[in-house]
Specification:
Layout: H1 3-25, E1 28-37, E2 40-41, E3 46-50, E4 53-57, H2 60-70, E5 85-94, H3 101-117, E6 126-133, E7 136-144, E8 156-157, H4 160-179, H5 181-193, H6 199-214, H7 222-233, H8 240-258, H9 267-290, H10 297-305
Parallel strand pairs: 2-8
Antiparallel strand pairs: 1-5, 1-6, 3-4, 4-5, 6-7
């Protein structure tokens, strides 16, 4: 074989090898995440939320093995006794993405889902990822998300009402979160607010969430506009005057923080405002899912503005 022909053959083989590699990486394969639900308690041993998503009571040896791996993540001491249940999440992904940052995004999705759709907070921040290899699932190790709620409860009894909400909200939430960046931004900001150590960061996250949810136009008096729409949206549950007052105070507080003004309000009052506006953001997120599901932002705002004035 002449030198020129030899070089051509080498190039051909390299291209063929690269083609096969790309073909392999593009394969869609089964992936499984076993997500720790720390603080989750239930009388039931197995809860099926939907196909490919279920919660199971774990055997002691499984918990010990999981948390032994988890200790290598950082210096935090994990208590396997606080984790009786794991959520198993089956999905399909390209081989090139399986076990990478995509796994962390899926854990993040589950964490946001629980935070938005339930009235309780449990710790959801790590999982063991597995990919299918020759018909068997092989572990790729522990994955952990950076944003972890600081408000989680350590002993929450889940009942049939919680499970029904999970089943009801899961298809609504995943579709809207994945297909509507506008909604996903608000849900993420709400989730971020739960991980903040300083109230200033918390109020910024929550007001960003409200502004992203309820403002589509450039205008003055943003705080008043947000307050008006929020009170209309939540009128069936909360006193509209009170919601308006809280929203305006929170936005004014946010403005003081971001513009470096002196905040004279007492901490107890600030804390109370943050707790109330946090509940409002969660309620608004849930309403968007159930009553206004998949509406574009402009149509959602149009319907909110059309809600008539009603007295509680």
């Amino acid at each position: 074989m002449e030198h020129e022909e030899f070089e051509k053959e080498i190039i051909r083989q390299m291209k063929e090898s690269e083609r096969k590699r790309e073909e392999l990486l593009n394969q869609i394969i089964p992936v499984k995440l076993v997500i720790a639900l720390e603080g989750f308690r239930s009388e039931r041993d197995r809860i099926v939320i939907t196909e490919g998503l279920e919660i199971n009571r774990a055997k002691p040896e499984m918990r010990e093995e999981f948390f032994k791996r988890a200790k290598s993540l950082d210096l935090e001491i994990y208590n396997s006794e606080s984790c009786e249940f794991f959520l198993t999440y089956h999905y399909q992904e390209q081989r090139r993405h399986a076990g990478t940052g995509e796994s962390s995004e899926r854990i993040f999705l589950i964490s946001i889902f629980f935070a938005v759709c339930l009235d309780v907070f449990i710790k959801i921040d790590k999982a063991q990822s597995f990919i299918s290899f020759r018909g068997e699932f092989e572990s790729l190790g522990i994955r952990r998300i950076h944003y972890r709620s600081m408000k989680y409860e350590r002993n929450v009894q889940f009942d049939d009402g919680h499970f029904e909400r999970l089943k009801r909200f899961w298809p609504l939430f995943t579709k809207q979160f994945n297909e509507m960046p506008h909604y996903a931004l608000v849900a993420r900001r709400y989730h971020y607010s739960l991980s903040r150590l300083q109230w200033e960061d918390e109020i910024i996250d929550l007001t960003i969430a409200l502004e992203a949810l309820l403002m589509i136009e450039q205008t003055k008096n943003i705080g008043s506009k947000i307050a008006k729409r929020l009170s209309k949206l939540l009128w069936a549950t909360y006193d509209r005057g009170k919601i308006t007052e809280v929203a305006i105070e929170c936005y004014e507080l946010r403005n003081k923080v971001v513009h470096g003004e002196v905040v004279n309000e007492k901490y107890d009052k600030i804390r109370s405002l943050i707790e109330m506006i946090s509940i409002c953001v969660k309620q608004a997120l849930q309403l968007y899912l159930t009553k206004y599901h998949m509406l574009p932002a402009s149509e959602f705002i149009k319907q909110v503005d059309s809600i008539p004035r009603k007295k509680n």
